[in-house]
From TrEMBL:
This is glycerophosphodiester phosphodiesterase. Residues 28-48 are annotated as: Disordered. Belongs to the glycerophosphoryl diester phosphodiesterase family. Residues 434-759 form the GP-PDE domain. InterPro entries: GP_PDE_dom, Phytase-like_dom, PLC-like_Pdiesterase_TIM-brl. Residues 1-28 form the signal peptide. It is an enzyme of class 3 (hydrolase). It comes from Isoptericola hypogeus.
Length: 763
């Protein structure tokens, strides 16, 4: 039957009473550019940052059924659920409209993921009211109440292709007709909906009746599900990569639909195209903008206008639970290209508003009820697809739960639909003066040198992330610990590359395996990362096969679009691997490294970048080529290979004499010392007395960072081991204390969270 139109409104006074208003909330900083996390507000000059903080959460049971005919007869069974279900499933929300009175119109997508399994799913928008659980003794029920709904239909017989309910009077639309993903309410109350099968823009009246024929993409762009796709015609938009995100601007006359994914054949598969649609003229204006995603596989899940030319954009990966990497809200400005980079591709500037994997939860809202619900709240769902800025300035986010398929919170149990309110609260920044470097990312928790490991290090409050850098055959720098990749990727399982296995001499040592310099980037992208130390870190093997080998550009991009826990830019600490060897095969590292740093706006001593190397010659070369800081790595044995190759008798021990350190200070800003160089171990495995090297380095003006601090017993001095089990965790904090007491300025750690906690405990 006909339901309520989507015209529900409320007075501002009612909205203020019903929404979760908080003095000093994000509204206080919204007087500047919305979402600007660096805006110091009235306390300019003081040391403050904005901390995402959970204010309220409400959920709708995954198993909730709305009135209507049975649905899900063809849906895939998952998590103990099998259709058909006796009513209309609500599989989460892909778009929302804020009514301003504490209620929202919330729109699911096409139902169960494809045309073939969604013919019994009715396209609707639901009127919902969350009763927020706010914690702290002020709890609401924490439930989302479904009050009403509007069904979308083609009662005016506008469409010129057959629909599921072709012969009915109401001509209700289903998930086999359209895949609706975004919605905008115009000033006249009509609805503009972005969908993916076309991709089309659909124009409905306030009661859900289609007013006009679908507006197709210009240039004949069509997805594989487009009803106008001719036999034999090649689709030019990938399936399920249509208008997931769309926002209005300029008084609502213009819409800005965003393609969720890259177009096939685009030379940059990280490009997402934003288009402008004129609702008065009913046509695209021809103006477009380019957005660059963090990774090729990321999708854009929602858009919300926060200014004349500025929007919040949800960018997410397709992973869930602990495997999640990107669940973010960025702000973009169509009037600005990326001011941080000189490369000139014309991508819109984007700035982090919210990393939804790290939200403080001081009130313990729903803590302990599933993954990501604890002292820190995370939204680790696959389909993070809703963002709104509420009228008091705070952020509302939500999810599509792809019922019954997603189980991010509790494995085996379908995810509920969530609505969450987050505030950006002002927190005082405290600089402890000690640098924590996520060694190859948080490699104690995720396979090393993956964006997952780097993101985990950022979530664990590292100041820097460390990519080791090696080249591909086509000269692209990628992050791997070594150029030999049999231990860090699944290359051995790829029979198409069996003939690439070979033996090479690297820095005087014969190494057999597969090497990055024998693969193009495109070939390397077909591989997936695996845990390098599966016996030591068996938990990390759960992530084997999920992540690609990242490029250095992607790592730099992640860092410059991220913030530390203190609101500072995340630093990058790249290491050049085997520079003498790569010089010998015509793949020198220095020029492409400097090019990538420059392309990402890193060209000054003030920038959060430190380039490190075990060799001396390439650091001297880099000293002439870039102004970023440099660090000489020093091992407790052996010699820099460039000196060995040149017949120079100096060893690492010579480099850390007083005269050696003075020479390093001519071209570098710091030293990265192996732990035994600073505090050697006794014969029984315990720590001995500190050497004078830290003091001597400081006297020459060099900072001292130590490597590598790991939690497992086999890596710890004997007095800090917890047991005889080499893989069990011992007292890493105790070891760190000993080195910090000796004067070390920073630490490379596989477990940044432990390192940060140890430093916090010293305050």
């Amino acid at each position: 039957m006909r339901r309520s139109p989507l015209l529900r409104t409320a007075a501002a006074g009612t909205a203020a009473a019903l929404l979760l208003t908080t003095a000093g909330s994000a509204a206080a900083v919204a007087g500047g550019r919305p979402g600007d996390r660096h805006d110091p507000g009235p306390q300019a000059g003081s040391s403050w940052h904005l901390e995402p903080t959970l204010e309220g959460r409400a959920t709708l049971s995954a198993d909730f059924l709305a009135e209507g005919p049975a649905s899900g007869a063809q849906a895939s069974a998952a998590n103990g659920r099998q259709g058909p279900w006796d009513g209309q499933v609500i599989p989460g929300f892909s778009a929302m409209i804020d009514n301003g009175d504490g209620t929202f119109w919330a729109q699911p997508d096409n139902g169960f993921g494809s045309k073939g399994n969604s013919a019994d799913f009715l396209l609707r928008s639901y009127l919902v009211e969350p009763d927020w659980d706010t914690g702290g003794g002020r709890d609401g029920s924490g439930e989302i109440e479904v009050l009403d709904h509007v069904s979308y239909d083609d009662a005016n017989d506008v469409l010129d292709f057959d629909i599921v309910h072709e012969g009915s009077d109401e001509r209700l639309l289903t998930g086999a007709d359209f895949d609706i993903e975004s919605v905008v309410r115009a000033d006249d109350g009509t609805l503009w909906v972005g969908e993916e099968f076309g991709p089309f823009l659909l124009h409905f009246d306030a009661e859900g009746t289609l007013l006009e024929k679908p507006f197709p993409l210009p240039g004949g762009l069509k997805s594989p599900q487009n009803p106008y796709l001719d036999d034999g015609e090649e689709p030019t938009v990938r399936a399920s990569r249509g208008f997931e995100a769309m926002a209005p601007a300029r008084g609502g006359r213009y819409l800005y639909p965003v393609l969720e994914g890259a177009l096939p054949g685009d030379d940059d598969q990280r490009r997402r195209v934003i288009r402008e649609f004129d609702t008065r003229r009913g046509e695209y204006t021809g103006r477009t903008w380019d957005y660059q995603a963090d990774q090729e596989g990321n999708v854009l899940g929602d858009a919300f206008a926060v200014g004349k030319d500025s929007f919040w954009i949800v960018e997410r990966d397709d992973l869930e639970g602990p495997a999640s990497v990107t669940k973010r809200v960025y702000e973009i400005d169509l009037s600005e290209t990326d001011r941080d980079t000189p490369r000139g591709e014309g991508y819109v500037r984007k700035e982090l508003v919210l990393d939804a994997l790290r939200v403080e939860n001081p009130r313990g809202i729903d803590a302990g009820e599933g993954y990501g619900l604890g002292e820190t709240y995370a939204l680790p769902v696959q389909s993070f697809e809703t963002v709104l800025r509420l009228r008091d300035g705070r952020i509302l986010v939500g999810n599509d739960n792809n019922y019954p398929g997603n189980a991010a919170r509790n494995p085996g149990t379908p995810d509920d639909t969530e609505m969450v309110v987050i505030d950006l609260e002002r927190e005082r920044t405290r600089d402890d003066g000690i640098t924590v470097v996520g060694h190859r990312g948080a490699s104690g928790y995720r396979p090393e040198h993956t964006l997952a490991a780097y993101e985990q290090a950022i979530l664990q409050c590292a100041d820097y992330i460390e990519p080791d850098v090696v080249p591909t055959s086509d000269g692209v720098l990628v992050a791997r610990h070594e150029n030999e990749i049999s231990g860090t990727t699944d290359v051995a399982d790829h029979t198409e590359f069996a003939d690439r296995r070979t033996t090479k001499t690297i820095d005087g040592t014969a190494v057999t395996g597969w090497f990055t310099e024998d693969f193009t980037l495109a070939e390397l992208r077909t591989l997936r990362a695996v845990e390098r130390l599966p016996q030591v870190r068996p938990g990390n093997t759960a992530f084997d096969g999920l992540y690609q080998v990242p490029t250095l550009d992607e790592v730099l991009d992640l860092a410059r679009h991220s913030e530390t826990c203190d609101g500072e830019p995340v630093g990058v600490y790249p290491e050049t691997k085997h520079p003498t060897y790569f010089d010998s095969v015509g793949l020198s590292l220095e020029a492409p490294l400097v090019e990538q740093l420059d392309a990402n706006g890193f060209d000054s001593r003030r920038d959060p970048v430190i380039v490190q190397s075990f060799e001396t010659g390439n650091l001297r070369e880099l000293d002439d080529a870039t102004d970023v800081r440099l660090a000489q790595l020093v091992s407790s044995s052996g010699a820099p290979y460039d000196l060995v190759a040149a017949g120079d008798p100096r060893t690492y021990a010579d480099l850390v004499t007083r005269s050696g350190l003075r020479e390093i200070a001519r071209y570098a800003d710091g030293v990265g010392l192996e732990k035994n160089v600073m505090i050697p171990r006794e014969a029984d495995g315990t720590l001995g007395e500190p050497t004078p090297v830290i003091r001597d380095a400081h006297r020459t003006g060099l900072e001292v960072h130590g490597w590598t601090f790991r939690a497992e017993n086999q890596f710890l001095p004997a007095e800090f081991r917890s047991s005889a089990d080499p893989a069990a965790h011992g007292d890493l904090a105790g070891e760190l204390d000993a080195f910090l007491d000796a004067g070390m300025d920073g630490a490379f750690s596989d477990h940044p969270d432990v390192a940060v906690a140890a430093i916090e405990a010293r305050r």
